[in-house]
Specification:
The complex is a heterodimer. Chain A is mainly alpha-helical. Chain A has 12 helices and no strands.
Amino acid sequence: MRLLQSPAVRVGLSISIATGLYGVSFGALSVTSGLDFWQTMALSLLLFSGGSQFAFIGVVAGGGSGVAAMGAATLLGMRNGIYGMQVNALLQPRGWLRFAAAHVTIDESTATSTGQTDPLEQKRGFWTAGLGIFVLWNLFTAVGALAGGALGDPKQWGLDGAAVAAFLGLLWPRLKGREPVAIAVVCALATVLAVPFVPAGVPILVAAVVAAAIGWFSHGRSDEGLEPDVDPYAEHPHTHHSGDAK
Amino acid sequence: MTLWMWLLLSCLLAYGWKLLGYLVPASVLRDPRMSRIAGTMTIGLLASLTIVNTVASGQALALDARLGALAAAGIALVFRAPFLVVVLAGAGAAAGLRLLGWN
């Protein structure tokens, strides 16, 4: 098992388990938001991007329309395009591999890859994390969806509180420094102010416009907010991905 | 049926973003402004989703057990708890506060 001695493969496997496990919370929250089992699985299999999936069900749970859910999920998926560009520059996949690589281009696979310096390790890290998370994320989504469906009244189990915690958990790793905190506060305020005046789901899109305007007019770090949900190199701060390779 | 339609369209668009990074010449997307907007929008949307799920109840604002979930999750995150523990802390706080009678 020479592959298991590769540092990128090891990091990729551990991040797959950590990320895959929280698929349980996605599956459970999705079915209690009103999606059925197959809709939940379609999101994990085909959309396959944690933040966007949570956004989609978060809007539906709040009574928002399908269009608003799509809007929030799609805007949140924009960063995957930036990751695609980074991974493409590093791995230069050819032919059909490119289309497969695109599907597993997410926070964690990109971070695992860009955290390595050797080209072969970058490639191993990307594919181990990408494919590993894909398999485990879908498996645990199914487990969560089946368990969530059996729970009965979701409020009694505090599942609406679980959704709040999940979004804060996704936001948290991105709040490094004063500026991202300021962006988060301004967008949260804009959301609260918009809630009484526009249909459910739309306040989130209002916040997206505010955030995009801040990004357009200000001059902060260009990789701000692009930290992964779960940091593959959390235990090795000196090889952390941000700062290099970006 | 319409939810299915928006859901599948979301999947298509999500894949579209990902693929775009591979197909568009790097020079087009290297514009730091693009990557900055992708980042600020990620922060803004997640902050918005957090607060909406905490205080919005349809088009009304409500202060209920979900505030306790937000606080519990925040505390768990300060202590560097893994994601799943954070989610469980949120669920536990909301369920516990409801048991105590705070809807």
